[in-house]
Every structure is written in C-alpha cells, then in structure tokens.
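Q: Convert this sequence to structure tokens.
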Amino acid sequence: MTGRRVARIVMVVFGAIAVLFALSLLAGGAALVWAQNDKTNSDGFFTTHPHHFENSSYAITSQKLDLGTGVPGWIFGAGRYAKISIHATSANGKPIFVGIGRSDDVNRYLSGAAYDRVTDLEVDPFSVEYEHHAGSAPVTPPGKQRFWVASGTGGETVVWGLRKGTWSVVAMNADASSPVAVDASFGAKVSFLGWIAAGVLIFGALLLVGGGLLVYLGLRKSAPLEAAEPAAPSAVRGYPVAVEGRLDEPLSRWLWLVKWLLAIPHYFVLAILWFAFFVLTVIAFFGILFTGRYPRGIFEFNVGVLRWTWRVGFYSYSALATDRYPPFTLDPVPDYPATLEIPYPERLSRGLVLVKWWLLAIPQYLVVSVFVGGWYFGGFWARGAWNAHYFGGGLILLLVLISAVALLFTGRYLRDVFEFVVGMNRWAFRVVAYAALMRDEYPPFRLGR
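A:
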C-alpha cells in the first residue's frame, strides 16, 4: 500500500470518528436546549416529583454534602452558578422546618438528640434507608438556630446557592417534636447551562465540518479504484454482489492452528475500518435520501472494507481455504484466491433506504445469524439485571473447524464443505451490502451466485 493510500485511509478514519463525535455533541447540545426549555419550572429549576420521608425520631438528615473542599471557592461563584431547591410539606399535619447548614453545626445541634440519617436513596422505584442515632429531644426548636444558610417553614421552597464546604440538609417539625413525616421534592438550576449548550452546539458544528472535510479529502481521489469496474458485468449475471473463493491447494496441515495469531494485525486494522464503514454508511444514508445516489467515494471505500474483510476471513476462520497472507489494501487483488466486487449503482430508491436495512432485512438477518453465530436465544432476570445467553459460533465456524481437523489428519480440505462454506459467506456478504444500502436488489435466498 502506498504512502498516499495510507494517508487517505487515515484521513477517512479520523474524519469518520470526528463526524460521529460531532453528531453526538450536536445531539447532546440539542438535548440540553430542549431540557432547559421544556423540563424546567418557571424559575428555571429541574425538579423531581415529591417523595415521602418518615421516621419516629426528631429529625431526618442527609448525608454530608462535600462541595470542593480541595478547590478554590471562586469556582462556585459564591452560590451564583448553581442552586438547589427543596419544597417540603408536612405529611402529618405538623408545621415542617427545612434547613441547610454546615455539617459540624448540624452535628453539634443534634448531639444527644434522636435522629435518622439517610444512607441510601433510590429514585426509580423510590426507596430510602436510614441510619438511626439514639437520643432524646433537641434542646431548642430548629428555627431558633442561627447557623442555617438557608431555611424555610410551613411549605416554603428553600433555595440555596452551592458554596464550598461540607453541608447537611435537615427536616424537622418546627416545634422539634416527633415523629417527622414530610413529602419533599428537589430541584437544581445551573445558571450557565444555556452557554454550555451553545458551546457544545458550536463546537459540534465546527467538528462536523472538519470531519466531513477530512472524509471528503480522503475519498476525493479514489479514482484508482475505478479499475474494479470491469468486474461489474460478470457480477450482474447473478446477484450484483460477486463473492468468489478458490480453494488454494495444497494447504498446510498445521498452519491453521496459528492463523488467529498471524491475523491479529489485520484484526486491528479492520476494527478501525469497520468503525469508519459504519459512520460513512450513516452519511451515505442521507446522501441517498436527499439525492438518490450513493456518494461514489464512500461506496468505493466501503467496497474496499468488505473486500479486505473477505480476504482475511478466507485466510482465517471463515474458510481457512488459503495459506497466502492477505494483502493490506482496499484495492482489488485479482490473483488472490478470494475476491469481492460490487458494481456501483447509478440510482437508488430514496424511500427504500428508510426500511430495507432494518425491516426488510429481518428474514435475512435470521438466516445469516445461523451462519455466522452470535445470535441471542434466551435470558433471565437476576440481581436487578437482564442476563442474556448468546450462541457463540455459527455454522460457518463449525464446518470450517471440521474441515481443519480433516486437513490436519488427511492433508486435504473437504471440497463439498468448502463450497458450502463459501456459499454461506457469499450469502452473508450480500446481506451486509444490502443492509449497508449499497444495492436495492433484495438478496436471494440461495448459496450460489
């Protein structure tokens, strides 16, 4: 592979990564704008639904809230940058008091009093666990204490700007009696959220332009791949995805045992190429949707990725049918025993692109999952999570390993098995090409050409 060719691939890969990251940033920025406009109250706070807290002691306290004891205080902007709100109402008819204070002051006030500290809080579904501290009644009602930085009584909404320090939230009856029962909702507000959203959107847009430019420059001069065009007429005689393999005998009896190791460099490269393949297919989706054409540069690149994948699979455990090491190139290599060609479609259906890759391809996915494996077949719910079972290997791998064992002992590859394996691979690549929007012709349900 020439240095110029490597440079183009690198540009496409990094451009595709930049485009994908840019799309994520744009989606995140749009979500922030939507949330700020539609999910906040009239004061700009994101709020929760009311949750019920109750105990038989004299107070309910939060865990210590440690806010940046190791960072400069200016980061919090003296409470201007971020605020929290607590709206609490009594659930037993007694006037309720809510206060926020430094944890040391709260601990001194409640020293010797019976109270419960929240140790674990789950929101959905709501549940709360407490740590009980035994004692008697507080000496004075909470409203007479002067250490509260924010407080409210009788259903008032307590608003507090976050500041450096270690803080605790306390809910008590205003007369310091027991028990305590309160319904509380919580809110949060970030004053510069709009600036964050704007920055994310602007950076995402710039990154999208830059990534798109890299992809364009990497694919712009892909004319040398046009040499593959003469193979198109032969492909059209059958389904226009020509996947061929020639059994390259004689084969080594033992080399297949270490091909997984020898192919590792290809696996690394293919992981990057397939990432680019996915991102570029998304770009091609919109190109087809708006113009009815698959961008030619992206098409040739994606064909090259499929071609490279088939050569590596033919050498390794999708066929084990050659001992010739696969070349590191997206270009066609006519004398290599595994070839793949797809003629460029001049026009594609704009409507079909919306459904063929998921809805129409479902029957094909079911068949191919049997061939290549990795399909889901069951699961169970345990310990709060869904545990799924997957079939690790498919029919292709099973038959290839059988042929490998026969090769080890007889020195010959089972030819009937080889034809079947190539047919299954052919079927799988046709489905991939269809799902990647490269052709509109529905893949046939057959192993042959």
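The first strand starts at residue 46 and ends at 47.
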